[in-house]
């Protein structure tokens, strides 16, 4: 299954077009390698997604062509979720 379709069906990202944009920006890694929207996803793959100010790492548990909302979270297991601490540029200049 393609990465962009997995992200949509699993509801990690709501729309496939958004999933394609995020993956084509290099913000998703599968098994430690940067993945594009057309990258094939397999059961057991470990995926890290950069969402603005956090990283979400999940393991693919199963692949389905479509799911109901309540069943979507069965497609993956959250391994780790961490916040990204970024410094604001020029922060000191504005405070002076």
From TrEMBL:
Assembly description: Associates with stalled 50S ribosomal subunits. Binds to RqcH, 23S rRNA and the P-site tRNA. Does not require RqcH for association with 50S subunits.
Cited SMART domains: S4
Function: Key component of the ribosome quality control system (RQC), a ribosome-associated complex that mediates the extraction of incompletely synthesized nascent chains from stalled ribosomes and their subsequent degradation. RqcH recruits Ala-charged tRNA, and with RqcP directs the elongation of stalled nascent chains on 50S ribosomal subunits, leading to non-templated C-terminal alanine extensions (Ala tail). The Ala tail promotes nascent chain degradation. RqcP is associated with the translocation-like movement of the peptidyl-tRNA from the A-site into the P-site.
Residues annotated as domain RNA-binding S4: 1-62
Alphabetical list of CDD domains matching this protein: S4
Name recorded for this polypeptide: RQC P-site tRNA stabilizing factor
Coiled coil: none
A GO molecular-function annotation: rRNA binding
Keyword terms: Protein biosynthesis, RNA-binding, rRNA-binding, tRNA-binding
Pfam families documented for this protein: S4
Gene name linked to the record: rqcP
InterPro entries: RqcP, S4_RNA-bd, S4_RNA-bd_sf
GO biological process, one term: rescue of stalled ribosome
Source taxonomy: Bacteria, Bacillati, Bacillota, Bacilli, Lactobacillales
Domain of life the protein comes from: Bacteria
Family, similarity comment: Belongs to the RqcP family.
